[in-house]
Amino acid sequence: MSTVRDLGSEAVARELCPTVFASLRRSDQRRKAEQYVLGLLTVPGRKSIRKIAARTRGDADDHPSTAAVEQSLQHFVSCSTWPWSDVRAALARHMESALRPTAWVVRPLVIPKAGSHSVGVARRALPGLGSPVNCQEAHGLWLANEVASTPVNWRLRIPVEWLDSPTRRREGGIPDDEPRLTPDGAAANTALEVAAGWGLTRRPIVLDLSPDGAAGAAPEGASTAAVTVLSAAGLPFVVRIGADTDVGTPADIALSGYRRRTVAAHHVMSAVHRLRRAVEWTDPASGLVRTSLVAKVPVNLTGGAVRRTGVGERPLVLVGEWDKAGGRPSRFWLTDLVDAPSGVLLRLTKLTRRVDRDLVDITDEVGVRDFEGRTYPGWHRHTTLTSVAHAVRLLATAHALHPAAAARVPLRLPATAALRTG
Predict the structure, then answer these.
(1) Is 291 in a helix, a strand, or coil?
(2) Where is the Transposase IS701-like DDE domain (predicted)?
(3) What is the CA radius of gyration of the chain?
(4) Do residues 42 and 9 make contact, with C-beta atoms less than 8 angstroms apart?
(5) Span 153-181, pLDDT tens digits
């Protein structure tokens, strides 16, 4: 390793890997896991197994061939039997202590592909991306606060054409019990897995299925289905919804010009725009202080599926945010945190910007989209190892900025800290 940054990452990796890989029963598996993580952190450009193998071969005392190391790592990632969920849970527990997150943020991840053989690949028409894209579609859950975030769980959404093909299921190593999930179902289940038995303190789940987390349109209807799933599980949430999503308004909320009790979200916000308040917030992506206009109003959900689950009876709050004083709100959110002040709710929603920045600056740089294999287990093990590499880079950056407080928790990074790995 030739740079101070790499030396710092190597030192943190040597410290972290024994903890997160303790569930791997064999010492050779633990050694290969650490080698793979160090490769993700140090090889330039695309993180192919061949490049990682060449880097690993250079560190070996017995000078094996690159081909032999490549074959060994390929087997470790794609064909071995180690359970990635145990590693993810151990990583999450460690990073919860380091970050003390204020929320769990769920965001979509699109992985473009040139061919048709990678597991789960399909041509998809995704919101905000224009024409259909040949890609894999995944969702990640991030532990996040205003200054740092780290991914700890991933779910790859397998399309129906793969699930209905015995040949594709067999060749892709897709489990027999893999469910048919819509995008909102996949996003919600990414959070349910973490909440089920990982031993973390439950935090509000901030879920945004829009492609960029900005003022672009959120998928209509999809996120309300996620609300139903999260509500049924008893998990607190702040979920972005579309402007035309119907919500029910209580009888004591007078909506001038509307006779119906069920009204589109943007109509509700238009009717209560005089309730808007200016809220200052620090942009997690830039560190700049910004101001938005925010209003919130009590609502409930409507529709047959909602009534069947009983979610429609739960008190909810609709939050609208205006970037400018005129027009309709730029973003709409639905939450069950009915007693939280508007400022608290707005700042929770802005954690998506923290995650989107860290995805570009760290997770992409350590190769989360670079897996070249074709199997479901291989994809999950690769993304697990990239999550560990992300955590290493994050911790190494914090230690470099504050060497005297390297062991202190929670992790402290200035909001404007340069976390880019290039």
Answers:
(1) strand
(2) 20-260
(3) 22
(4) yes
(5) 999 999 999 999 999 999 999 999 999 99
